[in-house]
Design brief:
The protein is of the alpha+beta class. 14% of the residues lie in helices and 21% in strands. Strands 1, 4, 5, 8, 9, 10, 12 and 13 form an 8-stranded mixed sheet that branches. It has a 5-stranded mixed sheet with strand order 3-2-11-6-7.
């Protein structure tokens, strides 16, 4: 496949995002509920298997006390990077009201309506599989060691629509290294929360739950792979995958697991949800490739939300720096 390097035109943050979205960083971090306690992995002894994944408590968002608030004041979004060139950032309204999150409905507007009751605090993530530090980690301890960044990424859905989103988060590689994946860890798998009480649309059985996604370890360790906890300078909305989700901007959106409750390192290629139910339509890799059409529509162009005309789709969604990950691979076969 011919890879064309798209020109990059860095622009100032003020040209793409209104000042009001940045003016209250303390509230953003307070909403994140970051605690003052240091990282504490439970079950990181010789036991290979951590406790079962339990759904987050229905107690709701934990209040931060005065000591925590004082520490939060010292934190900030340290870096702002535009990785979408000169393209216009999508509106907050489009980003938060046009979503695929089938646990809350199959219509694009349903997640914004039905995800309101999702309780994202307290929240824990289980770490399993081929690593030397498995266990259960509270979200606050998972996030706290990382300096938050804003990265403006393109998002390309397999349905041939797209957005440009200013995510807030930290590199996935930095997180995975903390759990010391061993030499057998060739893949990493992500599991979305499946709680029928909070996600009533699970009863419809549209997909097999929990939702699962995965990638090779070298993909996961690429600098572009990102763990997201916010967007537009705000805490990540429930319908967008709160409280923590994955983003790999060179892949179709279905690869970006939302509301993550488990991360598992595996030696063999694990099952992923859409690939399991429709391998002919949804490949394991899920890389954006305008030369490989979906069986039911072309992938050569896309509809950018908020724009009138369709635009050409770029190989790897305009991120050619990931091409070496797939050197020598037939990208028509490994789609």
């Amino acid at each position: 496949m011919l890879i064309r390097v798209s020109p990059q035109y860095p622009i100032k943050s003020s040209e793409i995002t209104s000042e009001s979205t940045y003016q209250d960083r303390r509230r953003f971090l307070a909403q994140m509920g970051l605690a003052t306690a240091g990282m504490a992995l439970a079950g990181c002894s010789d036991a290979k298997t951590p406790p079962p994944v339990a759904p987050p408590s229905a107690a709701g968002t934990a209040a931060t006390d005065g000591a925590a608030s004082a520490e939060l004041a010292a934190l900030d979004v340290k870096t702002k990077v535009n990785m979408a060139g000169a393209e216009k950032v999508s509106s907050f309204e489009d980003i938060t009201n046009y979503n695929n999150f089938y646990e809350f409905g199959t219509g694009k507007g349903e997640p914004a309506n039905y995800a309101k009751k999702l309780k994202t605090r307290p929240w824990s993530v289980a770490i399993e599989g081929e690593c030397d530090a498995p266990g259960m980690i509270d979200l606050e301890d998972l996030i706290k060691p990382h300096a938050l960044e804003e990265r403006i990424y393109r998002l390309r859905c397999v349905e041939a629509w797209s957005m440009v989103i200013p995510w807030v988060g930290f590199p996935l590689a930095d997180l995975l290294k903390r759990f010391k994946p061993n030499s057998k860890a060739k893949f990493v798998q992500f599991f979305t929360l499946a709680d029928v009480e909070q996600m009533p649309m699970i009863k419809r059985g549209v997909l097999p739950y929990p939702y699962r996604e995965a990638m090779r370890m070298d993909e996961a360790m690429h600098p572009l792979a990102f763990m997201v906890v916010g967007l537009y300078g705000k805490v990540l909305p429930n319908q967008n995958g709160a409280p923590i989700r994955l983003m790999a901007p060179w892949k179709y959106g279905f690869k970006a697991a939302k509301s993550i409750v488990k991360i598992k390192f595996t030696e063999t290629q694990p099952e992923t949800t859409w690939n399991a139910i429709g391998a002919a339509e949804y490949g394991f890799y899920g890389n954006v490739n305008p030369e490989v059409d979906h069986p039911r529509w072309s992938q050569a162009s896309e509809r950018r939300l908020g724009e009138l005309f369709r635009k050409p789709t770029l190989p790897f969604n305009g991120y050619p720096e990931v091409a070496p990950l797939y050197a020598g691979m037939d990208l028509r076969r490994y789609y």
